[in-house]
Each structure stands twice: as C-alpha cells, then as structure tokens.
Amino acid sequence: MTFLLRSPLLLLSAALLTAPAWAQQIPDPAFDTCLSGLRAPARAAGVSEATFTQHTQGLVPDMGVVEKLNFQPEFRTAIWDYLAGLVDEERVAQGQALLLQHADTLARVQERFGVDPATVVAVWGVESNFGQTFGKSPLLQSLGTLSCFGRRQAYFRTEFYATLRILQAGHIAPERLVGSWAGAFGHTQFMPSTFERLAVDFDGDGKADLMDSTVDALASTANFLARAGWQTGQPWGFEVKLPSGFSASGEGRRTKRAMGEWAARGVQRVDGSPLPASGSAGLLTPAGPQGPAFLVLRNFDAIYSYNAAESYGLAIAHLSDRLRGGGPFATPWPTDDPGLSRAERREVQTLLIARGHDIGEVDGMLGDKSRVAIRAEQERLGHEVSGRAGQKLLKALRGG
Ligand code: CA
Fold first, then answer.
1. Are 255 and 282 in contact (CB under 8 A)?
2. End-to-end distance of the chain based on CA atoms, in angstroms?
3. How many Å lie between the centroid of ligand 1 and the Cα of residue 171?
4. For residues 368 and 322, what is the distance between their CA atoms, to the nearest angstrom?
5. What separation in Å is there between the alpha carbon of 211 and the centre of ligand 1?
6. Quick one: pLDDT at residue 15?
7. How far is the CA of 109 from the centre of ligand 1 (A)?
8. Ligand 1 centroid from CA 181, angstroms
9. Mean pLDDT for each consecutive 10-residue tract of the chain (400 residues)?
10. Ligand 1: distance of its center to the CA of 304 in Å?
11. Ligand 1 centre from 167 Cα, in Å?
12. Distance in Å, CA 388 to ligand 1 centroid
C-alpha cells in the first residue's frame, strides 16, 4: 500500500528537489475548488463537517510535493552505496545503546507481539534514524495537494481522509502531524491508513502516538510485522556461499525451495555450518552471483512488506544482525570502489569545502551541490566523472 513512496532511497533523491519557499504558500483557486469537492467524500469516509472545515480552512497547496512525486532519479543507487549509508558503525552503535535503554519496553513488546528487540530497533533505525528524521512536510498540506494534483490522486485522497480521521480521533495534535512529502510520519513512518490499521497505544494514555511516544512506536512496528506474518523465533535468513558455477537465474525471494534442495545444490552458510534441517527459503543475490548471497525465510517477507523493496528489507535484516553482534557480510560486493558510511560522507563533504566548493552544510547527504563538487573533483583527479562518491574519491581527497 505504501510501497515505493516510502522508500528511504527515493526520499533521499526527492530531498534534492526543494521548491522555493514563495511557491509554497500561494492560495490557488483550483485547489480550493478541489478541496470543496472532497468534503462530501470525506464525510462518507467518516470525517465530520467540523473536522473537515477546521483542518482545511486556509490550507494552501505545496506544489513541491507534486514535483517530488514526478521525480525520476538520474541514476540508480548501487546496493553497496545504499547499505553503506544505512547500516554503518554509527547506526549499529546507536541501535545497541537504544536496545539497552528501551530493554524493558522491548521485552514487553516481544512478549505481546512475538517480534524480537533487534528487529524492531532495526526497523526504527532505517525508517526514521531512531526517531531523528521524521520529514518536514505538514501532512494535511502535502496529502491535500497530492489529492488534487498529479497522478495517483485516488490513493492520496484515501490517505488524506485517514489523516483527517486521525486528527478527529485526537491521537496526534495537528501541528505535530508532519512527515515525509508523501505522507509517511513519525518514528515508524507509517502512512495514515497504516496508522489506522496498525498503530498501537502501548503506554496506555489512550492515544496511539507515533510522533511523541517511543513506546507506542516500538509496539506499532512489532504489530506491523506480526500482522505481516512474522514467525516468532525464526531468523529472517542468512548469508550463504554459492558453489562456483551456480546458476541463480530464476531464483528470488518468492521462489521458496526446501532447505534440503539448497543443500543438495551445494549452498552453504558462510560460517560453514549446515543449513537448517527443515523449512524453505528463497535465494537473493542483489548484486548478482559474484556478490553476497542470502537465503531468505518467511520473516524476510514480513520485513519486505514494510516498504516493498528488497534492498530496504536487506538493510533492516542486516542491521538487526549487526545489532545482535554480527559482523559485516562475508562476501564483498563486486566493486573495486565500495560505498561510504555516513561519517565518510561527511568527511567527503568537509574535504570538498576545504577545496573551496560551496556545498552547503555538512550533513552526510550527498545532494545536488555535493554532486556538482564531486564531479569537478573527479575531473581534476582524472577519475570517471560520475558524481558518485565512493572509497576511491575519499582516499584521493584525503591525499589532497
Ligand atoms: Ca499512547
């Protein structure tokens, strides 16, 4: 239901497109007409007249979100860049500290929903950087705009009505309801309709508050996974070694085969231990058979359903293993220029500034300005001019 719109990957790309502030506050007669037309269907969807009036009066569109909806990334982010930024030492250390800090809550969550602490905290870390990145778009404005302009209006209207119902029920104060440009909000980055289905009041104050209650947020994440078919006590999967010449063609997350069949084909765990005696799994080779390979079980599908992207599922799965004390993947990615952690991205930005480039703030997000500077440096260094920063560029910049 929420799929690609919530992908951190796309949010990152879309963050590069920011409409000028003046463009965001202009009243628009077409928008007002559209909103008036939504009053009756909103009513039919359980939004009272009073709620609708209260929250749409004076609402102006933000056409920047329509641009973001239409934005096509210039190039695909390689899986090793994606994971290097999402699962880095910083996030592992922070997640481990939060596992301790919230140990009691997480234990109660596990008891109630059957999902282990590391998995819940890994989702939290990837979705909102443990509650530090919620997005900055007021939901009423962004979802109101997307209900009236651009493609997929029917989808966004159902989310707009859900937003109004959440406000009507008093779960979250209107001024706190701010999220991604596409309407995902809070610690768990749920869409409003997902909130209505799955948000849980776990601290007992009568409200499911995914903005300001960590307890509610952790429980709601576990509830999501439980409802997505989480199997208590089962792993998401594990990294495997493929025998040389192995053909992974036609294999994938959905093509589940018995463990015995994988074993018979020579697939082994990377630590040399045997595959489980029973159960079934699909084979993921996100960078082809030369890169890391994984057998994924039913629980990977539950994680996948959070955002409908395998790279995203792998980030959460891997982060959960790292939080449990596991190491990096045993098989290197098939590249001679691995990706950068967020600390390394900040270092690249600092080095670019030192070389006189105006890239704005050092934030670890390699946005448009950083990419222009990266291209200039790649040209100067005689590297391939890609605008992508990897270990090669970092080393070269450190060298001056
Ligand atoms: Ca609550």
1. yes
2. 48
3. 8
4. 31
5. 10
6. 41
7. 14
8. 25
9. 41 42 67 96 98 95 93 82 96 98 98 98 97 94 97 97 96 92 95 97 96 97 98 97 93 97 96 92 95 98 94 97 97 97 97 96 92 96 96 94
10. 26
11. 15
12. 43
The contacts of residue 97 (CB under 8 Å, 6+ apart) are none
Q: Which of 388, 396, 384 is nearest to 355 (CA)?
A: 396
pLDDT in tens, 22-63: 445 677 899 999 999 999 999 999 999 999 999 999 999 999
CA 182 – ligand 1 centroid, Å = 24
Give me 347's structure tokens. Answer: 């270092």
**What's the pLDDT at 74?**
67
- Residues 280, 257: contact at Cβ < 8 Å? yes
- What is the whole-number distance in angstroms between the Cα of residue 371 and the centre of ligand 1? 42
CA 210–ligand 1 middle distance (angstroms): 8
* Ligand 1 center from residue 365 Cα (angstroms): 33
Domains in the chain (CATH in brackets) are 26-71+134-203 (1.10.8.350), 237-310 (no CATH), 342-398 (no CATH)
User: Cβ distance 42 to 52 under 8 Å?
Assistant: yes
Model-level pTM?
Answer: 0.91
